[in-house]
Design a protein that fits this description.
Number of helices of chain A: 0
Largest interface: A-B, 22 and 27 residues
Distance between the termini of chain B: 36 Å
Shape of chain A: globular
Largest sheet of chain A: 7 strands, mixed
Helix content of chain A: under 10%
Number of strands of chain B: 11
Structural class of chain A: mainly beta
Strand content of chain B: over 45%
Radius of gyration of chain B: 13 Å
Strand content of chain A: over 45%
Helix content of chain B: under 10%
Largest sheet of chain B: 7 strands, mixed
Structural class of chain B: mainly beta
Number of strands of chain A: 11
Order of helices and strands of chain A: EEEEEEEEEEE
Oligomer: heterodimer
Chain lengths: 118, 112
């Protein structure tokens, strides 16, 4: 059974940094791309970033490009999201999600809350 | 970016009755590989999204056949044949034909 567990969320001041992690189990992690999707309080879902199974391809939404960095460690079945230069508008629950080839998401983690506030 | 618009924003349904949600995209979701990439998710209160439909009309494993998807190009529909109490929550459509993948604003389904 696929299991995705996010960690690393918390409260940070504007301009600060956080590193989120998503530990995966129940599938061959090294065979699948991974996504991060966020949801601001009371709002809809927003796709943030994707990393190919071998990290050969990475995409970001424009609003985070240059500030956020996705990476993965296939030996640890973990995907990371480094959040730098955080803004108030980055406040959201961040979900880790597993890619299903060719182009969809078939499993979601429980999410981790990032709050950017002074 | 492709803009995805869902209607209605909320829906109140009598148990056992059908329900329908529309999802329209600002550009065609027909990809160069010949597939159309539109998915549907249900987010139950206090939970993360759970998958329902991918590639317009294919049900994810374990999804009830009460859920069906249809459409093409820019117009898509999710139908619930007979709404049950467990179907309450927010339904999201997502286009993945073009990066960045984008979601509709969500449709909240309640039981009367």
């Amino acid at each position: 059974q696929v299991h995705l567990v996010e960690s690393g969320g918390g409260v940070v001041q504007p301009g600060g940094s956080l590193r989120l992690a998503c530990a995966a189990s129940g599938f061959n992690f090294y065979d699948y791309g991974m996504h991060w999707v966020r949801q601001a309080p009371g709002k809809g879902l927003e796709w943030v970033t994707f990393i190919h199974y071998d990290a050969s391809s990475i995409d970001y939404i424009d609003s985070v490009r240059g500030r956020f960095t996705i990476s993965r460690d296939n030996s640890k079945s973990t995907v990371y999201l480094q959040l730098n230069s955080l803004r108030v508008e980055d406040t959201a629950v961040y979900y880790c999600a597993k890619d299903k080839v060719p182009r969809t998401i078939d499993h979601w983690g429980q999410g981790t809350l990032v709050t950017v506030s002074s | 970016d492709i803009v995805v618009t869902q209607t209605p924003r909320s829906l109140s349904v009598t148990p056992g009755q059908p329900a329908s949600i529309s999802c329209k995209s600002s550009q065609s979701l027909l990809h160069g590989d010949g597939e159309t990439y539109l998915s549907w998710y249900l987010q139950k209160p206090g939970h993360s999204p759970q998958p329902l439909i991918y590639e317009v009309s294919k049900r994810f494993s374990g999804v009830s056949d009460r859920f069906s998807g249809s459409g093409s190009g820019t117009d898509f529909t999710l139908k619930i044949s007979r709404v049950e109490a467990e179907d309450v929550g927010v339904y999201h459509c997502m286009q993945s034909a073009q990066v960045p993948w984008t979601f509709g604003q969500g449709t909240k389904v309640e039981i009367k």
